[in-house]
Model the fold of this input.
Amino acid sequence: MEIANSTIVKEFILLGLTQSRNTQLLVFVLILTFYLIILPGNFLIILTIRLDPGLSAPLYFFLGNLAFLDVSYAFIVAPRMLADFLSEKKVISYKGCITQLFFLHFVGGGEGLLLVVMAFDRYIAICRPLHYSTVMNPRACHTFLLALWLGGFVHSIVQVALILHLPFCGPNQLDNFFCDVPQVIKLACTDTFVVELLMVFNSGLLTLLCFLGLLSSYAVIFCHICGSSSEGKNKALSTCTTHVIIILIMFGPAIFIYTRPFRALPVDKVVSFFHTVIFPLLNPVIYTLRNQEVKCAMRRLLRWNVVCWMDFIS
Done:
């Protein structure tokens, strides 16, 4: 049967984060306030790394891309969720749902691979410092960046291809505030056991393997740092600790959502909410607060902007 004929459902109804109107308005105000405070900070991080010549090392190149990916990830879900809080009927078209799902996994997959690249960068810098400038040259950094975007695309297109071959001919209520694989699959008018296994392998198993690999690599790095007597020991320890915090924040909810059979649990929406709306914008901020060079560069950029503004109005 053709896909166009097997898919009768043209739109999905999002049941949202909560059914309580008062709770919706409270969450709306809290998220909007959070975004108005944190989002400019993320843009400032990107701008600072872009403009400050002192932040040209691969570490900061990847941090700037992390901030960009996190901002992009947050924009996939949050704006629509905020708009739905003010709407009585929360509807998303079938094509819009597939598009949201594609970009969610495209950016999310790319970010996961970026954290792997950042771990490799720290390993070379700390465990093989004499080879660092050779291995992590600008060409290699851009190659890594291209590879992680390509990897995110492949991961996402597999998800979308599997869903596009499912027939949707009956129920159209998604028990969530956005379109994601577990909820969409459950609405298909066919047995989805095999598809669920493929999805768990594509998302869950790969996420778990990346997570375990990252923890193992940082364990090796920490052992090397603890056995070292160099003067940069504290700085390296602080940087790697921050990376591990970000890994736990990103991979923890993803493992919970994608490595188990797609059965709804009461905490699913809360975990998805923090995973897609709150944590992405916090990742670069957490890193920046623990990195003295970036904080100093941001202060210099802000002072320079203030001086230019004062000169302009005087």
Summary: The CA atoms of residues 129 and 243 lie 19 Å apart.
